[in-house]
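Repro:
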Amino acid sequence: MRLDMTVSCDERFRPLLDQMVSRIIDYVGYGGSDATAVAGVVERALGGARACMAGTPNASLDLRFVIWETEMEIRIGCRPSPGAAERGEGRALDRVLREGGAGEDAPLDRIRQVMTRVEFGREDGLDVCTLAKALPGRG
């Protein structure tokens, strides 16, 4: 199964995105505390992606959910508005996730505790974070 989507960084879309993540996690079969942990770290990663685009008009996130034979993979790509990079707007996603807030651990620390694979890169002008988790009963 594969689902690709582009979602505005506008805060009004956050509940829709959080609900979609929860439903996909349920569909895959993660249950109980595992489902809660996976949803929580995906929401943290999405929050980091939105933070990268803060103040960038018309910014959007590209998301890809892929269910492979043994793992679920979630690819998050930050797509700034046209010209944002030239204006110096936005921050690298890996850097944002490595930083902790006041009195908080860095989101990346928690993400790595829950997910079996976390990778960063750049593809077609996007800052990309790929999260993967072994499917229930298969890892």
